[in-house]
Amino acid sequence: MDIATMLGMIFGVGFIVSGILVGGIINDFYDLPSIFITLGGTFASTMINYSTKQFFNVFKVAKNAFKKHQYDLVQTIGRIIELANMARREGLLSLDRVAESIEEPFLRKGIMLIVDGTDPELVKNIMETELIFMEERHAAGQSMFESMAEYAPAYGMIGTLIGLINMLRNLNNADSIGVGMATALVTTFYGVILANLVFTPIAGKLRSNSKLEMGYNELILEGLLSIQAGENPLIIEEKLNSFVAKMDKENIAFVTAANEGGGRVHA
Question: 157 or 252, which is more confident?
Answer without folding.
Answer: 157
